[in-house]
Amino acid sequence: MADGEGDPGVFTATALPGDPRLLPTVTNAFLGTRVFRDILHAAGVYSGAAGDTHRADVPSPLGLRMAAPGARSPAESFTLNTWTGTFSHTIQSLGYTATHQLYAHHSLVHLMAFSITIRRLDGSTHPVTVQLQSLFVPQSQDLDLTAGPDFQGAHYIYGRTLVPEVEGGPRPAVHMLWTPIPQSLTLGGEERERCWEFLTAVAGSEEEAKRSYSAGLSLVAAGSLHRSHVRAWAALRRGCSVELDGPLALRQALHGCLYYLLSAIPPRDSPGVPFHGISPGGLSNGTRGEDYWGHVFWDQDTWMFPNILLLDPEAARAILQYRIRTLEGARRNAREQGYEGAKFPWESAATGREVCPEEIYGAQEIHVTGDVLMAFEQYYCTTQDQKLFREDGGWELVEAVAQYWCSRMEWSEEEQLYHIRGVMPPDEYHSQVDNSAYTNAVARRSLSFATDMARDLLLPVPEEWEDRARKIKVPFDEERKYHPEYDGYSPGEPVKQADVVLLGFPLMHPMSAEVRRNDLEMYEPVTDPAGPAMTWSMFAVGWLELKELQRAWSQLEKCFSNITEPFKVWVENSDGSGAVNFLTGMGGFLQVVLFGFTGFRITRSGLLFDPAFPDDITKLKVSGVSYLGNKLEVTITREEIRMEVTETSRDPPASPLEAVLESGGCFPLWEGQSISFPTAPGWIQRSPS
């Protein structure tokens, strides 16, 4: 391994961070908690009306701490193993070790578990006792909980959230079963080693909670509970493997990002379970007053989604289905503001109604509606999955977004262009501006995609969609050859975060290399250094595009001030403020690796590539790049690109692929056959044969 030894996917410390927010999270698609915390959260379970809606705190039996009161000079260690999706706390004392393991089961998503193992290291025969210090009380400020009868040795509580998100709306139910936890555990004098296992099952129905608890007990009896979790988690990690040869800190950051982001996605074998979106701080966070209350923003669609799509299109589809499920709420938002179609909320919870506590963002930060549709476009270009659009509600969403943008524009007689007035761009230091470059460019992209999609589905295309896409104003300064952030922007004005630079990527708004460079040069020095973590990754991608490798690296390096030790938990702002376990920043960082270093760009005609590595990186290997039903392993060095189709879907059948170089070479991609060619720009496309 380059730059130092040690496993880059295992984070170990002898002490915990002083700030409990920086403890690692253990999460699956339905349940999440921070280690040693006395609450957990269940996906989609919010309490509170409108702007007060927040993830409901579910009391957690998992938040206990192991102690060895009689131990002489015990050595403690704390480890997050990203390969097994498991956190552990170990106490080593004279004559024995005690280990506490904690995980959210990756295939039984309604189950979390922990175990305590005591093992003798010598021939002694005295009993060994460890204490379990628990803060658990079966009560919640957000749930009306009642105790029910025990089930298979487990205690049982159930109830509903106290306040619905919208008046008269549903109050989600929570049913929880857990193994009773004693105050101490003792290894008998005649025993060498013993493991105690404790289960917590949480679901929306009594039946599901009991089914999950029973399934867990069966695996405990077979001695394979933890092993079954590790197997499911390892299969996901293998299918989404990203490895690079480079500095240890970069490889550790990469594995940390993959662990936290992949923890948040639905498992591959649960298509029937509805997915509830990904909030900036993930499912483990989001109690009232924390991590934006667990709401879903554009962070999901713009910053996290592209990585998930490239590696796991089924999980990407589940994210889109969350947006489809909340379409009616988005229609209500548009109507209430006097517009047609659907306006996705700046902050979304269970219904799609606006739940942002501050009105200005919901009223003005409307680019989120285009961000949602861009995720649908990227998905369609990558999968050609027409079923999502024809049968599963996708087309209704596309059409509603196009209608919204048409109704939100006004014709300027003076400029003979359509304007969008009175918005807040991604740069939240400015509001009530006209013609935000990013907002208008994403609206144009929405209308162009809606037009293309209608044609693919053989549906009539409203004339106004094409007309408005052609004639919407995207501000451009002809003299300075750059994009002003909005009408009236003065060069040098401070900017909160990545905004205009997003025109180049991910929007791929048409522009010359000169304009792309000017946008980067104009906004890099005026972007707030204390702004949110995802910003620098987009500057890095821009410089990689222009082959300015040192400048790209200096931008990427800024991200490291948002990564905390020892468990690689990201904070939103480098001063530690804002959201923690900031998946948005991690998503941006992963896009530098998956789209910046590779040059991957998702287009209608193919998956482009044009690799560029900063000096310290010599090799990148991505296993499980998904494109048109194929899984590809792509290995890139400075000298050579190697590709192999490792898997093809049978239903629907995968499209045969070929790699085409800009310089003219063409290489068929057959399953199981590796091809290589000198590192150069090109694209992967459906093979015409």
Report a brief summary of the structure:
The protein has 689 residues and is of the alpha+beta class. It has a 9-stranded antiparallel sheet, with helices on one face. A 5-stranded antiparallel sheet has the order 19-24-25-26-29. A 5-stranded antiparallel sheet has the order 22-23-30-27-28.
From the N-terminal CA to the C-terminal CA, the straight-line distance is 42 Å
Oligomer: single chain
Helical content class:
25-40%
Q: And the CATH topology of one domain?
A: Beta-galactosidase, Chain A, domain 5
Q: State the major sheet.
A: 9 strands, antiparallel
Q: Give average pLDDT, whole number.
A: 96
The CATH level-2 architecture of one domain is identified as Distorted Sandwich
CATH class of one domain: Mainly Beta
Number of strands: 30
Going by CATH, the homologous superfamily of one domain would be Glycoside hydrolase, family 65, N-terminal domain
The order of strands across the largest sheet is: 1-9-10-11-12-18-16-15-14
Give start-end ranges of low-pLDDT stretches: none
In words, what does this structure look like?
With 689 residues, the chain is of the alpha+beta class. Among the domains are: 230 residues, Glycoside hydrolase, family 65, N-terminal domain (Beta-galactosidase, Chain A, domain 5, Distorted Sandwich), CATH 2.70.98.40; 68 residues, no CATH class. The protein has 16 helices and 30 strands. A nine-stranded antiparallel sheet has the order 1-9-10-11-12-18-16-15-14, covered by helices on one side. A hairpin with a 4-residue loop joins β9 and β10. α4 packs across α16, α8 runs antiparallel to α10 and α11 packs antiparallel against α12. The longest helix is centred in the middle third of the chain and has 20 residues. It is globular. It starts with 9 loop residues before the first strand and ends with a strand. The model has no long low-confidence stretch (mean pLDDT 96).
